[in-house]
UniProtKB/TrEMBL annotation:
Single annotated GO MF: ATP binding
Protein name: ATPase domain-containing protein
Coiled coil: none
Organism per entry: Thermococcus waiotapuensis
Superkingdom per UniProt: Archaea
Lineage of the organism: Archaea, Methanobacteriati, Methanobacteriota, Thermococci, Thermococcales
Stored InterPro entries: KaiC-like_dom, KaiC_dom, P-loop_NTPase
UniProt keywords, alphabetically: ATP-binding, Nucleotide-binding
Amino acid sequence: MAPHNVVRVKSGIPGLDDLIQGGFPQGTTVLVTGPTGTGKTTFGAQFVYKGAELYNEPGVIVTLEERVSDLRKEMRSFGWDFQKYEDEGKIALIDGVSSVAGLPSEERFVLEEGLNVEGFLRYIYRVIKAINVKRVLIDSVPSIAIRLREEKNIRELLLRLNTILLEMGVTTILTTEAEDPKRDKLSRYGVEEFIARGVILLDLVEKDIELKRYILIRKMRETKHPMKKYPFEITEEGIVVYPSGEIY
């Protein structure tokens, strides 16, 4: 049984908390993995946005795969007005793309070109402290390695990043690519799932001649959870998990 005194952080994703005893353990780093196009960025963005909207918990998104302006536009399709909470100081979006692409950025928070591991960690630490952040999304782990040109040292980087996040007491979602989840290859580098205290897989399964999305909680420390695949959908209002709709 999981401890009863664990403080839970609501995911903001309908149906998910029913599977993890009410939410993520506070201060946990959760790895959200899966093939391209399974909804990992939306999952993490929803966690941060709903934290600000529903629970008054400030959040940070470090976007390393798309420009902040594109992320805002994409998330607006779910009715999520990130700019509103940015203006209120409840959400900070860190642009980790523009400088690498050689593009100018008008964002308040921008990761500069040529940042090393130390600079990257220090910048994130500063932003988290600045708005008293409770929730963090880093999208994605492979893009950190590429951006910092430190792919060979990804294990050390992730360990240090995770240590900083744990010490600050924030609840974090890291996204990564699963090369072949069917064969238990849950992450690009094979180390991400070991530094995370939780691992959630988003994937697709063929059912009745069409592809269906499913979620599987592979690991969640301090939490009693099922090891089954459950359907989820990306609706007009974001991700919804169906705990009663077990696939198998």
